Each structure stands twice: as structure tokens, then as C-alpha cells.
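In this supplementary section we document a worked example of the pipeline. Step one takes a protein sequence of length 660 as its only input; no multiple sequence alignment statistics are reported here. Step two produces a three-dimensional model, which step three serialises into C-alpha cells for compact storage. The input and output of this example are shown verbatim.
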Amino acid sequence: MYPCFFSGKILPGTLRCAVAIAFMVIGRAVAQEIVLFEEHFDDDDWSSRGWYDGPDMVLDRVNRVGDSGGSAVFTWPAQGATTANSKGARVKFDPVEGFTMSCYMKFSDNWEWTGLGWHPHLNLFMTNKNGDFDGPAHTHLTLYVEVVDGVPKLLVQDGQNIDQSRVGENLVGITENRSVAGGNGDPDGHGGSAYLYNGYYRNNKYWSADTIFFGDEQGSYYKNDWHKVVAHFQLNSIIDGIGVANGVLQLWVDDSLLIDHHDVMFRTGQNPGMKIDQYLLLPYYGPGVPHSQSFWIDEIKIIRDEQELPAVPPPVQSFLLFEENFDDADWASRGWYDGPGMVVDPGAGAGDSGGATVFNWLAQGDKSPGASGGRKLLDAAQGLTVSYDIKFSDNWSFAVDSLFPPALFWFVTGEDGQWANPVTSRLTVFLDHLDGGINIGMRDILNIDTLRLGEDLTGETENRAVAGGNGNSDSHRAIYFTRAGDEALFNLKHLKSDTVYFRDDQGGYYKGDWHHVESHFQLNTIVDGKGVANGVARSKFDGKLVMDYSDVMYRTGQYPDMKFNQLMLLPYLPGGAPQPQSLWIDNLLIEKEERELLVPQQLSCDFNGDGSSNILDVLGMVLLGRANPDANVLDRDGDGAYSLLDVLALLRDIVEGKCN
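The serialised model returned by step three reads:
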């Protein structure tokens, strides 16, 4: 018996044990990550490391990261300067479709931004569709990693792909001979714009973090401290000659994920062989600096990071289920029931709306507002998109870090009936703004197997809860608890946006202004009587994607026909209002939005022929590799060759339950 394998189950320590066994059998070291380029700024022998195009970076031996020998400092010498006295350069590397770049950056304590929403440019990448000295602003594709007005940002340009004769036309779906970053339509829903420059059009599309991470005040986000910046780009797929919007871009600062999109179009079918092969360190402050100021960069590393992207699902099936503009109080005519008591505020509508509904909490401690909400039956749907406009009184106080979110909209399924209790049900999905975020929560209290409370029943039975009480069926935190005073059992799974979007300070996120919220949720798939964790939870704030999950478990195999069929507009503050306060809602729109969800492929991991998947299969794979290293089944990581990386990939698949 192997010391890390008992009763067919993988126990703690198995990963270390299996790796050790694999080392002993194969007798070789684990293959290292593929580094495309690395720069520590220890010396100025630039050409030895592949720099070209006149590198003349200035080394700073004092301001450096850790044990680094130095950093590169770029100083703009005087007011109005656009380029620094330290000249950057370019590096070519092996062409890749995906890469991850990391570096450390900081700015002088007197650094001032443009205040214009653009510049300075810092780190750039280009592709094999351009020459060694082309661009960078007008190319077939340029990627930017930069900081604008203190906010980390990613940007894309592909001006050379613009059909200059059809600027302003939407060519998406008409031709692949078009741009993706603006000028010929928006192929991925992330916007983009075109602008005239020296008689022809350029373009850009950008993604920004939501918070200043290089700020003026000392603390965690101080601009004069070193911050680690990591960016990942993966070019989208080309299928049957057509570009598919499944490209990836991500940005981390100090290990916090700030930008994360997996639906980006970088290239169309006119450039199927496009790959990234050039890095440019060319700091440039277009409008001219306000005074002498400096920027430092250190420990640059670029690694190959290519992924097999999922195919895009079929088109969404969508149609309107319900619309409420709150222009009048004739609720029954629009199907509201359960004593709807919404109050119409005729002077407070969003935009050109004739009115809005207002909910007033009249006194401290009130849980429900003075006006009651109502219910509305809907045509049954497995996926819903709910959009609405909302604003809060300027004295509004959000509940912070509460297990009891202040819910606004509740959606229950046909299993719970016309008069369902939204708190105790077979499934309730609710939308809320806990902590000022854009959140989607769920409960399935009636599904808890109370006789086995606290046990993880995942994989053992489908007769279990998924939001807490019987284990966690997906990667999202699920909890259960009893409410003090009545000992009632509750559970909760709460999917939250990444930051606060309704804020106290005047500006783009001010809670007292109207904002547009859109949330989409779709039930997960049931395959062979078992729930698959591929449900969707997605939210937007003022058109910006702020939460996007496609790995949620809403239901198990005990409810294969479950569908949503009821809306409840019942604003409720479980902890009570801290003072009299109000919120307004307008332009409520509910659409049935369903798509065919991707089902994670179950892989065959049985390399020893015993009909199960465990550590013995890792050894079976190693033995097969020694006997027949060219066997196709051995290439688990898809790099075209068998190595210890394939053994580790197999072990990972077994541990993560991806094997059939």
C-alpha cells in the first residue's frame, strides 16, 4: 500500500507524495515555466538581453525592489516634456497567443497625472502582423498596461484594421475585414471609439480598475511605494474563419484582481495567425508633464501563458417578460398582487420617466419601509435578466459585512407556489446592494437535510442543499446558521461584486444619483440526474461588468425541471434602518434570457484499468509513458509532448474531480 493512498481516497499530502513518486520514476526535474523575457536592471548591457531600438535606460541603484541590483528610472526633466531623459526600447520574443507580464512600478512623490483620462503610456505589446520598428499607436494590434490618473488600466488599439471608407458603420457580422477597438462597430460589448488623426482614423478600447491604486496619500495605495502589477492577455479564437469574442484580459495590483474579462475580441478572421511577439518599454506623457517628475520600473518578467479557450455558446434566447415604469399606481392592471402598496413619486423618475417608486424607512429600527411592495407572476424561465434604475437618499447607510443582506428583488421557482416565503423556499435568488455593491444571493433552506446538517453530501446524494448546510457544491462560500431568538435554520450563498459602487462622495459613484443596474442569473445544468456547477451570475453597473461567474450551483438533480416564475419587490433591512432613509427604483425590466451552458468535459483518468480514478492512475500513466511515450492519451496539457507536466495535469484533474 502506498503511504499516501488509503481506501481509494486522496488524503492530505497526496499531491506532495504523487509528485515525489513521479520524480523517482521519471527521473527528471519538473519543467519550468516558459520565460519569454526577463529584466532585473542589474546592469546596462542591454543588447545581451535582446533590447533594441536604441536602449539608453538610466539605472537607479537606490530605488530598487528587494535584492534587485537596480531599477530603471524615467525622469521628465521640465514642464512640458513628453519623453523622459531615459530612453526606453523594444524586445522581441517567441510569438505567443497568450502571455502574462509582471513588474514593479512606482512614481515620484510629486507626480501629477494628466487629469484627462489618458496617458502616460508605459508598457506596450505588439504582434507579428507588424514590423520590428512599427507603431505603436497605429498597428494591427497594440496592447497597453498603464496607470492613468492613478487608476490601473488596460488598453487596445488596432487602427490599421479600420476600414477607413466605412468608419462609423457597424460591420460586425458583415465582414471580418474590420477593426475591433472602434471605428467599425463593437464586436464584444466593451465599447471602443475612433478619432481623426492626421487625416485618418485611429481607435482605442480600454478597461479601468474601479479604484485609485497609485494615490497621493501615504498608505497601501501610495504612488511613491513599489506596487506589483501583473497583466494577462490571451487572444481570442478564430473558428471557421470568424473571430469569436472569447479572449481574456486580466490585471492584478498587489495580488488584487482588478480587471477580469473573458469575452474580449482582439482579432478577427482577417488575422488568424496573429501572435504577440514584441514588448515596448516606452514611457510617454503625451500632454507634457506639469513639472519635473519620475517613474520607476523593476523586475520585468514575461512568460508564455496560453490557454485553450472554450467555444462560445449558441446565441442567447431572450424576450421580455415584464416591464414596470412606475408611472402610476394601477398595479392590478399590470399583474401585481399580494396587496401592492408601492408609492409613486411623480417628480423623481430617472431620465424622461414619468415617476419612480420610493420606499421610505420612517424610523430608526424599521426593517420594512412604510409602503409595502408586491408580487408578480412570470412565465417560467431558467434564466432571467433584471435591469432597473436605482438611487438612495444622501443619508442612506448600507449594512456592512452582514449575513442578512438588505434585499430588494426576490425570485422564487414553481416549486414554492404563488405565496412562497422568499426566505424559506426550495430556491430563492435575490438581488441586493449590501456594502454598496452589486450582488446576487441565494437560499434553498427547504432542501437542507437537517438530519445530516454540517456534513458534505456533495457527490453522495442529490437530495441536499447547495447554499449551505450540506456542503459546498461549487467554489463559492456557502454557510448555514440559526437566527438568535427563534433558532430557525437558514443558509446563504452570496456572490458579491468586487468593490463599492454606491458611495458617499459626490462623483461617478454617488449613491444619491440615478444608476443603472443589470443582473443576470441562469440555473445550472442537470446531466444524468446530477447537478453540474455551470450556472451563471453576472452583474453590470452603469453598463460596466462588475461580476461574472459561470460556475454556480443553484440546484441539484432532485429538481431537474426547476424554473423561476415569480418576482417579489420587497425591500427589507433585516438589521433595521439606522435612521429614516429612502431609496427609489424606476424602469424595471425583466427578460427571459437563456443560453445553452457549457458542461465541463469529464476526462478519462483510468490509466491502470481498475475503473476508478486515484493515485494509482498517476503511476499507471508514468509506466505507460516509459513503455510508449508517443501515446496520444499521455498529452494531458496539450503541448504536443509527454513530460512530467502531463503527470501533474492528470493529478490535478483527479484532485479537482474532473475525471469520469
